[in-house]
Amino acid sequence: MTLDRRKARRLVFILGDQLSPEMSSLRDADPGEDVLLLCEVAAEANYVRHHKQKIAFIFSAMRHFADEMRQAGWTVDYVKLTDRGNSGSFTGELGRAVKRHRPERVIATEPGEWRVMEMMRGWEKVAGCPVEIRPDTRFLASHDAFAEWAEGRKQLTMEYFYRQMRRKTGLLMEGDAPAGGKWNYDSHNRKPAGDDLFMPQPNRFAPDAITREVIALIEDRFADHFGTLENFGWAVTRKDAERARDAFLENFLAAFGDYQDAMLAGQPFLYHSLLSPYVNAGLLDPLDLCRRVNAAWRAGDVPLNAAEGFIRQIIGWREYVRGVYWLKMPDYGSMNVLGATRALPDFYWTGETDMNCMAHVVRQTRAHAYAHHIQRLMVTGTFALLAGIDPRQVHEWYLAVYADAYEWVELPNVIGMSQFADGGILGSKPYAASGAYIDRMSDYCGSCRYDVKRKTGPDACPFNPLYWDFLDRNSKKLSGNQRLAQVYRYWARMDRDKRRVYLDSAADVLKGLDDAPKTYGQGK
Ligand code: FAD
Ligand code: DLZ
Ligand code: SF4
């Protein structure tokens, strides 16, 4: 690449999940004078061993974004992973770029991750000029606004935060009241899916020349990372992401609410949007997406429970977990209130387990870098919770394997929502469940080697004894929880011998986990 060597007025550093011309770092930038810097760096691909598709998605989307900005008249300095002299880190690349462009100032939008923010705090020293770090205006709630909302609250209940965001945006509002008279239609959204459902297939995009080059690079450089690239079908341009969005609005949204919690073995995507990688990376704007959903409901194209369910995930959960992340970091990342220490079993990487639900979710994750919310929460998440797996290892697994995973969104979902390792900052009770939940919401159990109806013994669904063992093991910490009072009463009233059989059965399952090899991804 030949770049004009004149002195740049400003160097705008754009991270791989900031791929939007609307970024705050570009607010007052001048295409005539300023230089945009994007860099592929090994440290970002390796700090956890990301799924191959995740790295391919980000590198290809970055390369396409660089082209988009060049076509719009910007000077873009793009550093490829294979470029000679690539230092391998953001800070190293900043130092090299400053030497190339001698800017008066460096501008960046704040990163999504604490780890990168710590790096940026040292950038002024490296750059030798002022470094301005601006808020990320893609979010509705600033860090200060979230902290103000959280101040003095005993429990950070998402529902109340969500209502504030509804009022702030006017989405699904009739004056001051929620559309339809209720804020939340979740109780309508728990239908199991049947095989006979007509299932539209989501938009997938054949790799173009840039993506093919990136895929070859990933195969070469990251061959030992989890996942396959065969099914790579992610949009990597804004235009294709918008196509995926429009197809979702037209074909999927109407049924999104009803089947949000359902799981089917042959249908990894169901009525989910698959838009999270695009929203998180900057290819789609979250508020714009919600406004389109709102408009579809107002036009009578989709029912209220679907529109509300979708909008709640974005302006409710997504904003809320980011708020919790920045409020509680850095301590949040190492929380382990339940003291879980078991190592993550290898089948989280290989999918080789007789538990049909786990095997399906892991294999689907390997093939697509995707699993939907209930698969993440109630299959891989619940199993790790019940088995007492070290939350740090669980967190690193989720951060590595999903195309949409960045710590700001993944960590609270894992440490808080899924593993209850934060002791209830994010959720009021752990998502502990026996096999009955998976049986009700999926078709996994029918062809499983285990019997979901059996409570104990070698043929029992492992979730069943583990459920009671989890409650028993953590009774000191959890039995005071009002929402668990009834199950603890049931457990206390259970015949002593029966309880012993549950605990012995769980001990066998846990011994099986402890005896199995654990070799993959350790220490990364
Ligand atoms: P849809 O079901 O179509 O939902 C629509 C959108 O809502 C998503 O695209 C997403 O932007 C947003 N959303 C839904 N639920 C959440 C949530 N709990 N938190 C934040 N946003 C939400 N989401 C990520 O974006 N990155 C992660 O790394 C991530 N890790 C998770 C780990 C666990 C253990 C759990 C339980 C959830 C996690 N989620 C994460 C949330 C959610 O599972 C994904 O956003 C969703 O599955 C993405 O698929 P989709 O786009 O088809 O979502
Ligand atoms: C996830 C990721 C990967 C794998 N590679 C890069 C990269 O080479 N260059 C880059 O700018 N961003 C990458 N990212 C995204 C960053 O990890 C992300 O921007 C930070 O974690 C902040 O959220
Ligand atoms: Fe999963 Fe248990 Fe059902 Fe098997 S029986 S699929 S292990 S929930």
CATH superfamily annotation of the largest domain: DNA Cyclobutane Dipyrimidine Photolyase, subunit A, domain 3
How far do the termini sit from each other?
Answer: 34 Å
Q: Major sheet: size, sense and barrel closure? A: 5 strands, parallel
Cross-sheet strand order for the largest sheet: 3-2-1-4-5
Look at the helices and sheets and give the structural class.
Answer: mainly alpha
CATH topology of the largest domain, which one? DNA Cyclobutane Dipyrimidine Photolyase, subunit A, domain 3
CATH class of the largest domain: Mainly Alpha
Strand content: 5-15%
Query: Number of DSSP helices?
Result: 23
Pick out the low-confidence regions.
Answer: none
- Count the E strands: 7
Average residue pLDDT: 94
Give the CATH architecture of the largest domain: Orthogonal Bundle
Order of helices and strands: EEHHEHEHHEHHEEHHHHHHHHHHHHHHHH
Amount of helix: 40-55%
- Can you tell me the overall shape? globular
**Taking Cα atoms only, what radius of gyration do you get, to the nearest Å?**
24 Å
| Number of separate domains | 3
Structure, explained:
This protein has three domains: 10-134, Rossmann fold (3-Layer(aba) Sandwich); 143-202 and 252-328, Serine Threonine Protein Phosphatase 5, Tetratricopeptide repeat, CATH 1.25.40; 347-515, DNA Cyclobutane Dipyrimidine Photolyase, subunit A, domain 3 (Orthogonal Bundle). The mean pLDDT is 94. The protein contains 23 helices and seven strands. The chain is globular and about 80 Å long. The strands form two sheets. Strands 3-2-1-4-5 form a five-stranded parallel β-sheet, with helices on both faces. Strands 6-7 form a two-stranded antiparallel ribbon. It is mainly alpha-helical and 524 residues long. It has helices spanning 42-46, 52-71, 90-101, 114-121, 123-127, 143-150, 158-169, 209-221, 238-251, 253-256, 276-281, 286-298, 304-328, 347-350, 356-368, 373-387, 391-401, 407-418, 435-441, 463-473, 475-478, 485-493, 496-515; strands at 10-13, 35-39, 75-79, 105-109, 131-134, 173-174, 177-178. A hairpin with a 2-residue loop joins strand 6 (173-174) and strand 7. Bound molecules: flavin-adenine dinucleotide, ligand DLZ and iron/sulfur cluster (SF4). Ligand DLZ is lined by residues 15-17, 39-41, 44-45, 50, 55, 58, 111-113, 116, 406.
